[in-house]
Amino acid sequence: MKKIKKAIGLLLLGVVLAGGAKNASALSFECGACVDEPSFVGYTTVEVSGSLLADLGGVEGTEKTGFQYATSLDFGDGFGFESAIPYDTKTMTWDNETYTTNYYKHKLNSLEPGATYYYRFVTYGPNPPVLENGDLDHSATRLVSETLSFTTKPFPVFSTKMYRGMSTHEEVKNLQETLFILNYYGVANPTPLGTLVDGKFGPMTETAVKAYQSASGLVADGIVGAKTRESLNKLMASWFTSCFAPCTIAGGIPFGTGGVSHITSDSGTLVGYAPVLAQTGTAIGPYYYFEYGTTENFGEKTGETFAKASGELAIPISGLEANTTYYYRFVQKSGSTMTPGWIFTYGTTRSFTTSE
User: Fold this and answer.
1) What tens digit of pLDDT does each residue of 312-348 get?
2) Is 140 exposed, middle or buried (0-12, 13-18, 19+ CB in 10 A)?
3) Do 94 and 200 reside in the same domain of the chain?
4) For the domain that residue 234 is a member of, what is the CATH number?
């Protein structure tokens, strides 16, 4: 990340508060409105955070606090505003006065892979006017932090022939992560993804490649040759250009249906991928569940959950028939205070066959 020239409204504490002018170093506060380097940068998701000295603008009443982000420094084209979510508060006393700093964070979603964005932390004055397009009026900004930038990860493009014995190769890491998302890599191994994705093309990676090749109608030789790379590249492109709205990603994972693990004669564990939420669900969702059945009309569904999503949701099902093909898909159900009824987002319909 590189820092951009500061765009400051009222940053340092060289302002007059109740009790007189205060000095930033004396208070040990860095600034009135601060923005941090992102704690996570994915393909289309970035986690940002900031802080605000309450007495320098505050967030009480009708004031709004959040992040502006755009692909240009003037925050014009592509402008977005995301309300900040408070996660911590710290107070300190100086010269018999108590000062409070509030800390905020938010995940910016639906970004373009491989694009550079500029962002800053802002607070708006009371009752900021709303423009015709629904954005808050920039001129109402009360405090503005410095401006930072980040570049989202470009989605993997496989161009190198990969085979068993390769070691610490970046494309092998991308391959392992992709096969993990597809539920081919590490299915029988509870090791965390960060440990599995090591860039070493060993027996477990070879087994996963063969499983993907078999499922994709390719020769299952465990070598990532031209046809396998073409198949993977088409898949990755479809994730980032043709996925169902909302096309958001959790750690590089698009919303959609995953694979099935732990298949037996009467059970299996369905896997789906959902955006990482900054907070748990509410009365209007989003809720997540699976539909499944012996036909593409499904007929059965798992229980709905609105718990905070971590990217991958795995839900076991049982009571299945042996040696039977089942169809399934991942579903997001969400409501709106503006639109009556529920809004449904469906992952791709996939199938699996129980063992005998």
Assistant:
1) 677 889 999 999 999 999 998 876 555 556 778 888 8
2) middle
3) no
4) 1.10.101.10
For 204, list phi and psi in degrees, rounded to 5: -70, -40
Whether residue 137 is contained in a domain is answered as yes
The residue type of 52 is L
Choose between 114 and 208: higher pLDDT. Answer: 208
- How many distinct structural domains can be found in the chain? 3
Higher pLDDT, 340 or 200: 200
Element (H, E) at 268: strand 267-273
Phi, psi of 351 (to 5 degrees): -140, 160
Q: Which two tokens stand for residue 232?
A: 């993977």
For the stretch 16-19, contacts whose Cβ atoms lie closer than 8 Å and that sit 24 or more positions apart, written own/partner, are: 17/55, 17/56, 17/97, 18/55, 18/97, 19/95, 19/96, 19/97
The letter for the amino acid at 317 is: I
What is the distance of C-alpha 276 from the center of its chain? Answer: 5
335, two tokens: 């409501």
Q: Is 257 helix (H, G, I), strand (E, B) or coil?
A: strand
The last residue of one of the domains, among 116, 151, 186, is: 151
pLDDT digits (tens, 9 = 90+) for 219-256: 999 999 999 998 888 777 655 543 333 333 333 455 77
Contact 66, 81 (CB under 8 A): yes
Entry pTM: 0.53
Closest-CA residue to 141 (of 128, 158, 130)? 128
